[in-house]
UniProtKB/TrEMBL annotation:
Descriptive protein name: NAD(P)-binding protein
InterPro entries: NAD(P)-bd_dom_sf, SDR_fam, SDR_oxidoreductase
Family recorded in the similarity comment: Belongs to the short-chain dehydrogenases/reductases (SDR) family.
A GO term, aspect molecular function: oxidoreductase activity
Keywords for the protein's UniProt record, in alphabetical order: Oxidoreductase
Gene3D superfamilies according to UniProt: NAD(P)-binding Rossmann-like Domain
Length: 372
């Protein structure tokens, strides 16, 4: 069994660092997250990274290895991938699995524990989508996206959580995308794939509330469109652009070039060489997350992600404001009647509406039946 030490070794024995030789020369996370620093150096950490053969996963592996951490890199169950990953670095264990199959996830996790003696951070970079209008995707294609993206994430959570819970610490870093908040026509990433990402974010956020009291951290990373920083990188050959998506030809109803369903294809053509966010920069920030004491629930990386989510939230706030006007205008008389009968004031009513946040609903026999 190889073991990771508890001290940080900033020198990579076999692979040059793609980043600064001093990992603390620049930090990206706010001080409130308590990221590692020269005054509080990072301890050597064991990473279990699913989706390690994608360009983001590989970049995270490179940064973690270059900064002296230990990595179990998990790739797709394809011929030769395990051997390739095994040759990345002497402190890298290369494995393959199908996240849809619980047994393979369990075996990978058990192998990582046996190899390193512990696992500190679990990263999920896996993703699969189909580019095409919703109507063009059949039941099996939609199911395949949910099984990979949602069920795969649930398998990773459920099979690693008992270990983290028993030891009282651990961290999950879950990679989502703007597809987890935005809907865009014509891209599996924004229809069925989009639905899977919304589901994954809901799962991860709910999990965070459950496991935070147990000392376990969860962060959802939402990167913008990212570029590969290593065009000559030979770890696993060049990854094809949009390689984890299957492109389907559009049906006749959506074939027109100005069709909303073709928006995704037009967007991809325009963005081919305009991905503004550095994959290595994302990996550096992910490394900081893995070593932070108080990581955020969500982290938006890159101008595309920040502006896209900000625009969506602005629209949502406007809709909420309109909904409040509709609600209190049309039903105000009913609320006053109920408030009078219940002997409640307006502040009590608003508190009652917000009770769901604290999971303390009152039953009928406790005077909580005034809401219809």
């Amino acid at each position: 069994m190889d073991t990771c030490q508890t001290s940080h070794n900033p020198e990579s024995p076999t692979q040059p660092s793609p980043t600064s030789s001093n990992p603390y020369a620049r930090t990206y996370l706010p001080a409130s997250s308590e990221p590692p620093s020269s005054s509080k150096p990072a301890l050597q950490t064991v990473w279990l990274i699913f989706g390690a053969t994608g360009h983001l996963g590989r970049s995270i592996c490179r940064v973690a290895l270059a900064r002296g951490d230990c990595v179990t890199a998990v790739g797709r169950n394809l011929p030769g991938e395990e051997v390739v990953m095994q040759g990345w670095h002497q402190m890298c264990q290369g494995l393959v699995c199908d996240v849809r199959v619980r047994d393979t996830v369990s075996k990978v996790f058990g192998s990582a524990l046996e190899h390193w003696g512990r696992v500190d951070v679990v990263v999920n970079c896996t993703g699969y989508g189909i580019i095409g209008a919703c109507e063009d995707q059949d039941e099996h294609e939609i199911r395949a996206q949910f099984e990979t993206n949602l069920i795969g994430a649930a398998n990773i959570f459920q099979l690693t959580l008992p270990y983290f819970r028993e030891r009282g610490s651990g961290m999950y870093i879950v990679f989502s995308s703007t597809a987890g908040t935005l809907g865009t026509p014509g891209l599996g990433q924004r229809t069925a794939y989009c639905a899977t990402k919304w589901a994954v974010e809901g799962l991860a956020e709910s999990l965070m509330y459950e496991v935070e009291p147990l000392g376990i951290k969860v962060t959802i990373v939402v990167p913008g469109l990212s570029r590969r920083d290593e065009p000559d990188e030979n770890l696993n050959g060049p990854a094809p652009m949009w390689g984890h998506f299957l492109l389907k030809p559009p049906a006749d109803a959506y074939r027109a070039t100005n069709s909303p369903a073709q928006h995704a294809t037009r967007m991809i053509d325009w963005l081919k060489y305009k991905e503004p966010t550095s994959a290595i920069r994302i990996a550096e920030i992910t490394w900081e997350l893995g070593h932070s004491t108080h990581p955020p629930l969500r982290l938006f990386l890159g101008g595309h992600a920040v502006e896209a989510i900000r625009d969506r939230l602005r629209s949502t706030i406007e809709e909420v404001s309109l909904s409040l006007v509709y609600f209190f205008d049309a039903s105000w008389w009913w609320w006053w009647e109920e408030l009078f009968l219940a002997g409640m004031g307006i502040s009590d009513m608003l508190t009652r509406i917000e009770d769901w946040k604290h999971l303390n609903f009152k039953g009928e026999d406790e005077g909580g039946g005034f809401l219809r």
